Amino acid sequence: MVMMVMVVMVMKEVHSSSLPSRSFTIGGVLHDNTTQQHFTRALRMINFDGVSVADKTTLYEETTVLLGGPLTTALHVCNTIISKAVLAVVVASAPGGSGATAAVSYTCGFFHIPVICTHSRDSAFSNKNIHASLLRTVPPYSQQADVWVLLMRRLHYRQAILLHSATADGRALKDRFQALTRRHTDPEEAVKLAEVIEFREGQESFVEELTTIRHHLVKVILLSASESDAGRIFHDARYLNVTSEGYVWLVGEEALHADNAPLGTLALTLNHAHDYNAHITDSLRVVARALKLLHETQLYIPTPPVSCDDESDWDLTGQTLFR
């Protein structure tokens, strides 16, 4: 038994000593010069922290600032990031910049280059058929349903009315909420939706939807809406007296930012969601650890594609790195 253990240890040592010196390049697609500068500083720190980077390896960065729309972004990524043989990309787009994030994900995903995005919370990015090589540091808005269910149980609310936008995020939240409630059949814990009301994003009046709610016996209202839609909903709800005593408003994070949210509104917010520097640093550490493992387990690592017209044998390695 002792001999077997010793043999394994020697084999591992020989394997490690046979690994070549390597340099890895990580791409960064940032939304301004400040985040671009932080990316460079953070990677320099990670290179020398003594933990994140494997022996005989060095991490380099290749960064760019987001410019123009999705098509321009995709072309820019091809010409300035993929052309530098990056093994992974971190994208930190500005608030509301999901189009740019999607462009980076599509472009890099075609070549199985892993992407970590820091601030895109659209439910669409959870679709692995489209975004097969994408990770993110924040959850989608639809996962607020998990907390809503727990909070309703905690407060002993058994029924609620869901008012949500006819968007991918609104429908994903509805589906997730209903799936969660179906898991619990214990009548002491069960919660359910008494009614689901869907509205068109950007509509001018919500009197019709709120009148339906006013005539309902259930007074717990779940709201999934953008900040602008939520502002109009709260305005009309106050006009119809649907914010008076007896009503409970449990809203999503975006709706909470409306200036006229009713007093006593319940909501949840993600801590440090807007700390770009922290999210970028965490993303780089994740990539560094993955590259360390790749270096220590792969004698041969093919060169990533250096052109969006390139065909290489990188695909399997990219998938391994992503996992």
From TrEMBL:
It is found in: Membrane. InterPro entries: ANF_lig-bd_rcpt, BCAA_transport, Peripla_BP_I. Keywords: Membrane, Transmembrane, Transmembrane helix. GO terms for cellular component: membrane. The keyword Transmembrane applies. Pfam families: ANF_receptor. Coiled coil: none annotated. SUPFAM superfamilies: Periplasmic binding protein-like I (SSF53822). Residues 72-254 form the Receptor ligand binding region domain. This is Receptor ligand binding region domain-containing protein. The lineage of its organism: Eukaryota, Metazoa, Ecdysozoa, Arthropoda, Crustacea.
